[in-house]
Amino acid sequence: MAVEGMTKEPTATVGRAIHDIHLLANVDELAVGDHLPPERALAERLQVSRSTIRAALDVMRARGEISTRRGRGGTVIVADIAHAALPSRVTVNAKSTRIIDRTSASTSGLPHMLASQGMSCVTHVLDAQIQHCDERICQLFHVPTSQPLIRVERVRVVDGTPISYEQTYLDPRGYPDFLDFDLTRSIYQLLQFNHGTVIHAVEETIETIPGFGRPARALRLPSGTPLLYVCSCATDALGATVVVSDDVYPAAHVRLTTSRTLG
Fold first, then answer.
1. pLDDT tens-digit readout, 118-139
2. What is the C-alpha end-to-end distance of the chain, expressed in Å?
3. What is the largest CA-CA distance in the chain?
4. What confidence score (pLDDT) does residue 11 get?
5. For a surface tag, which of 69, 117, 165, 184 has the fewest beta carbons within 10 Å of its beta carbon?
6. What distance in Å separates the CA atoms of residue 27 and residue 31, rounded to the nearest whole number?
7. Measured at the alpha carbon of residue 130, what is the angle toward residues 129 and 136, in degrees to the nearest 5?
8. Of 169, 132, 130, whose CA–CA distance to 247 is shortest?
9. Calpha distance 154→165 (Å, rounded)
10. What DSSP designation does 101 have?
């Protein structure tokens, strides 16, 4: 029989979701008095079910970390969960690991880059469909959020170890048959060979983030492990967005190399 006033220990899944919410607060710089995103947004961001998010928020409320106000008050942070989430795994030690070189802002696929380093990878397609995407992705394509986009979710594996988690987006109006292709291949090569699309420029934003949610799970890493996050936006000769990719890599295993020809 449960004793009134006592909180059950959360399951491993719920415990990880709580830790990931703490990390999200850290990444988004949410402080005491700020609002957490709604349940649906949290579930989408962390790639877990809404029932898991509800259970996690219940535990956080019981611990005095958040408070939910009636009506449109939302869920307010009442304890410094962002500071509590500062990852303990901030030290990246790669001395005993083989480093994978990835060339920045390149249209060469990762398998080709790995092959040039004497490695081969296996690509697993986790999901591929036309769906509504978040506002940031739609803005990069200059379309409203009501416009669905192609989303391809993949993991690259080398010698049994996941080394990249990728989410790639395209506009289905330009490539209506794209999902019929072999999606384990390079996206850029698929577009070139099947549609004659030529990528004119690739702009990348690169940063180190603490891993949480689905990317960390797909890479089989504990929450808080440093990840290298790369957002790529590829455009054609007219400046129209063709491909947007959100790629993450274990920071201890991947080195980015950038080169630029100066005219």
1. 778 899 999 999 999 989 999 9
2. 76
3. 76
4. 87
5. 69
6. 11
7. 110
8. 169
9. 6
10. E
For the purposes of burial, counting CB atoms within 10 Å of the CB of 81, is it exposed (0-12), middle (13-18) or buried (19 or more)?
buried
What is the DSSP code string of 156-216?
EEETTEEEEEEEEEE-TTT-TTGGGS-TTS-HHHHHHHHH-----EEEEEEEEEE--HHHH
Counted residue by residue, the chain has a size of 263
Q: Are 187 and 152 in contact (CB under 8 A)?
A: yes
User: Which residues partner with 231 through β-bridges?
Assistant: 205, 246
Quote the crossing angle between the two packed helices 12-27 and 39-46, to the nearest 10°.
100
- The string of pLDDT tens digits covering residues 21-70 is 998 888 788 889 999 999 988 988 888 889 999 999 999 999 999 998 77
Burial class (CB in 10 A: 0-12, 13-18, 19+), 121: buried
Alpha-carbon distance of 251 to 164, in angstroms, equals: 10
CA gap 238, 243 in Å, rounded: 14
φ, ψ for residue 57, nearest 5 deg: -65, -35
Q: What is the DSSP letter of 87?
A: -
From residue 85, give the alpha-carbon distance in Å to each of 17, 105, 132, 163, 263: 12, 32, 30, 24, 46
Provide DSSP, 209-242.
EE--HHHHHHTT--TT-EEEEEEEEEE-TT--EE
Q: Which two tokens stand for residue 14?
A: 């719920």
CA distances (Å), origin 197, targets 18, 53, 200, 204: 43, 41, 9, 19
The two structure tokens encoding residue 185 = 């291949």
The reported pTM is 0.74
| 258 vs 205: CA distance, rounded Å | 12
| Residue 75 pLDDT greater than 60, yes or no | yes
Whether 50 contacts 113, CB under 8 Å: no
Query: 31: which 2 tokens?
Result: 């402080």
